[in-house]
Write a structure and sequence with these properties.
Elements lengths: L1 E3 L6 H13 L7 H4 L4 H8 L17 H14 L6 E3 L1 H8 L5 H31 L6 E10 L2 E10 L1 H45 L5 H6 L1
Helix pairs in contact: 1-6, 4-5
Length: 217
């Protein structure tokens, strides 16, 4: 469960929110007043989740206390279905129309939409994989490609996404193992170099020279 409390949005988050508000035709100057009650949020989420939300459960309220009741009901019945939970403090700030509370709430809606899009894309890939036969790791599909001024279909080989993920994980593990061995090798070479220099130094102190130097002389 992801708990949503009051916080300050960063400049980047605020800019992303402004773009999202324009896209959804929401007046940013009226956020505090309009989103002091839960109904606008319920209407917003109902577009993508019509079976999940019954607007009759959230009649428009005027008093702060009744607005808070609406928020608590919505938090329990709807937000929990998305694995989200609004803090008591944030719901009170929303009901009172406190500065910044609606922005925090709507930015969490943006994050929710992002997660759902990613989940939908992944599910689409998995559904496509299930259409393919399990023993076929490579498939040839036709893709549109522009050649000159014409669009033609050309064959292109593709592999299962699950196989790609496995190969990527294996490759990363091998790269990490190789890097570890290289670091150990460099460490051992440094140790051997230090020992060799120490041996040469001791031989010089004993009045002897290394055999290599003697041979050269």
């Amino acid at each position: 469960m992801h708990f949503i409390g009051n916080r300050l949005l960063s400049d980047g988050e605020l800019e992303e929110l402004r773009v999202w508000l324009r896209k959804n035709k929401i007046d940013g100057k009226k956020l505090r007043r309009e989103f002091s009650d839960v109904l606008p949020l319920a209407e917003l989420l109902k577009r993508d989740h019509p079976r999940l939300i019954d607007l009759y459960n959230y009649p428009k309220k005027c008093s702060v206390q009744l607005k808070l009741v609406n928020w608590e009901t919505f938090n329990y019945k709807v937000m929990s279905k998305f694995n989200l939970s609004l803090s008591k403090d944030l719901m009170e700030r929303l009901a009172n129309g406190s500065d910044g509370a609606a922005e925090v709430l709507l930015y969490e809606v943006i994050r929710l939409e992002k997660r759902q899009r990613l989940e939908e894309e992944r599910n689409a890939v998995l559904r496509q994989e299930r259409v393919w036969e399990e023993n076929d790791e490579v498939k040839t599909v036709l893709v549109n490609k522009q050649i000159g001024d014409a669009i033609v279909q050309v064959p292109q080989k593709m592999i299962l996404y699950s196989l790609y993920e496995k190969v990527s994980r294996d490759s990363k593990a091998k790269d990490e193992a190789i890097e570890t061995f290289q670091q150990r090798l460099i460490h051992m070479e440094n140790i051997l170099k230090v020992k060799s220099e120490r041996i040469d130094e001791l031989l010089m102190q004993m009045g002897k020279v290394p055999q290599e130097n003697t041979t050269k002389d």
